Amino acid sequence: MRRFQRRSGLKGMLVKFSIGGALFIVISTLSLLYSYTSTNPLSKEIHLEELWSNADSGGWLPSSAPQTYWPPPPTLTNGYLRVRCNGGLNQQRTAISNAVLAARVMNATLVLPDLDANSFWHDDSGFHGIYDVQHFIHTLKYDVNIVESIPLNQKNAKNKKIKAFQLRPPRDAPITWYTTEALNKMKEHGAIYLTPFSHRLAEEIDNPEYQRLRCRVNYHALRFKPHIMKLSQSIVDKLRAQGPFMSIHLRFEMDMLAFAGCFDIFSPEEQKILKKYREQNFAPKRLVYDERRAIGKCPLTPEEVGLILHALGFDNSTKIYLAAGELFGGDRFMKPFRSMFPRLENHSSVKHSEDLVQNTRGLAGSAVDYMVCLLSDIFMPTYDGPSNFANNLLGHRLYYGFRTTIRPDRKALAPIFIDREKGRVTGFEDTIRKVMLKTNFGEPHKRVSPESFYTNSWPECFCQTAAKKPADKCPPNDTLNGLNDELVKTTTNETNSTTS
Ligand SMILES: *[C@@H]1O[C@H](CO)[C@@H](O)[C@H](O)[C@H]1NC(C)=O
Ligand SMILES: *[C@@H]1O[C@H](CO)[C@@H](O)[C@H](O)[C@H]1NC(C)=O
Ligand SMILES: *[C@@H]1O[C@H](CO)[C@@H](O)[C@H](O)[C@H]1NC(C)=O
Ligand SMILES: *[C@@H]1O[C@H](CO)[C@@H](O)[C@H](O)[C@H]1NC(C)=O
Ligand SMILES: *[C@@H]1O[C@H](CO)[C@@H](O)[C@H](O)[C@H]1NC(C)=O
Ligand SMILES: *[C@@H]1O[C@H](CO)[C@@H](O)[C@H](O)[C@H]1NC(C)=O
To answer: Taking the model in full, what pTM does it have?
Structure first.
């Protein structure tokens, strides 16, 4: 049985976020040691107090330091790699991780990725507006050379910038595409520009060191700017002042509903709006609308979320932070949920201030929601699609100590909800609980396609101190010293050869 414990790691975690450099990898690995408790994974009951504490780690610790020989980035670059990351915050986040890996395998210098001015959020703050640039470059110094822009071409008397050759990578391209086709163009032109760059590198790569590099980027190098971290922390402090809290990513928004083709539950006028949005924004696809929910393709409605939580035993005292954009269909859908769980908050209700309004527009608003959900005691997504907010958070929470997630199996639950709507209510909550018992609450688990590496980086980015298999063993504490020695050696060599 897991002991009930209030999570004390929050302060520590934010401190860790602010510790510079790669040292952070080791520190977080060590300090996370203390937040584990053991539990019996086979217990066939759901205990609330267990859900309020971290899932059972099974002795696994997050670790993304290299475990085999990892030479420093080349002193002689093969050229410059520019990428344009499109999509929202989280699509960009996975794209940035992929870009670092691509630059590494090409022995290229990475130019700080371009982040699309997001068409939905009208946000053009770019990498500098969201992420801590110096921290990013510094944390990855053992992996890739990163510059903020392509330097002037010194050989060229006119001091012109190298013009990057534009290429469109295939979707989920293999590593070999980068080391052949892309590299040839890079050597020919001095620089390449990959656009668009989302889902352009295969997720499953049979090389744990490459996967660990992705974790170093995603979970260590990509740190939001101080004002975003500060605001998130103050929201979390306020929420936790009265005890633990849950966060829910309520993806009941127009774009999602239109994309998923979930129209049935809406009025004819609302359906018209959704269908129009779908026509304008997504490729035509034949969907059987009244089947979408039954096959698990629809986001949970706010009421369904409430029913699941109630069946799990949560009561109306539960504090819930809602990360969401504008909910579609208005209050009609929120009402049943709010009557079950009245203690609802979002980033505007927790903090009212001009400062907040300034800070929560566009990508920064998503970033604040991301941090609050990352640090919450329980996280529940209501929809998961490739490289979106919920999926990245599931991966991040796994890495930060197997923090509890509630992941409803929408396909298995749909018939139960449909029965209930038809008036069959006997045993409703028992049936819900039975389905939920078969789900994962944030323990280490095998990644099964279509689960993404960015949702579940186990086992590549984890290790055990008492491992049965040598491959699972945690790397020695001095790994970073080794990397540093190597780096110093090559830079000294370079200095000597250029001055002599
Ligand atoms: C990158 O450099 C390493 C040596 O550090 C070398 O083994 C590898 O073949 C190079 N790869 C490419 C694509 O240039
Ligand atoms: C929670 O439910 C109890 C009855 O189960 C009720 O007495 C109480 O007023 C409710 N609290 C809120 C905040 O709605
Ligand atoms: C946040 O909560 C407040 C108060 O409950 C509500 O008026 C507002 O619409 C919510 N904002 C969002 C973005 O959901
Ligand atoms: C790393 O150091 C900590 C304490 O300094 C120690 O408890 C731990 O066992 C060490 N880990 C390894 C893999 O040597
Ligand atoms: C640095 O230079 C020395 C002497 O030229 C050489 O022996 C050594 O292998 C070089 N180290 C690296 C990492 O290139
Ligand atoms: C590089 O130069 C420094 C200082 O001149 C010297 O101490 C070091 O040994 C040199 N390294 C190599 C590899 O020659």
So the answer is: 0.84
